[in-house]
Write a structure and sequence with these properties.
D-amino Acid Aminotransferase, Chain A, domain 1; 2 domains; Phosphorylase Kinase, domain 1; alpha+beta
Length: about 150
């Protein structure tokens, strides 16, 4: 029987548990999927496994080019050991095709190829509906620096 871990946080896509060493957490990837600020919800079998592997891939890539991050190692198919860090309250969205809120805002048909990749930022706050913000807001409110 596995030891019971203390849950630290649960979000829409992940659960964080206390880690085995001080300053660490175990990040568990759920199969839950949400869209439009959790107005649409579903369970996609295997999504957590895929997200765990993608996270590992990208974090290792960042480490290889000298960008510090929270990843320590993958524990199993759904979990990874991570460093406890301060969260930057931003979501970075890179769009190559029109979808979701972009289609709605600009009246573009879903799936329309964009002329170039578009980067958008939103302030991670469910109560406010994750509003879109510019780099000016990010720097002015101290959520990240220009260098970040």
């Amino acid at each position: 029987m596995a030891p019971r871990r203390k849950k630290v946080y649960e979000g829409k896509a992940k659960i964080l548990y206390e880690g085995t060493e001080p300053g660490t957490l175990v990040q568990y990837f759920k199969d839950d999927a949400t869209a439009f600020n959790a107005q649409k919800k579903a369970v996609i079998e295997g999504k957590g496994v895929l997200n765990n592997r993608l996270s590992e891939f990208f974090m290792n890539g960042l480490t290889n080019i000298g960008v510090p991050n929270h990843f320590i190692r993958r524990i199993n198919m759904r979990e990874q050991l991570i460093r406890q860090v301060e969260i930057v309250p931003l979501e970075v969205i890179v769009r190559n095709f029109a979808a979701g809120s972009l289609s709605k805002r600009l009246g573009l048909e879903e799936g329309t190829l964009l002329p170039r990749p578009i980067v958008e930022y939103s302030f991670k706050n469910d109560e406010l509906g994750d509003p879109m913000v510019s780099e000016e807001y990010i720097i002015a409110f101290g959520w990240a620096t220009q260098q970040d």
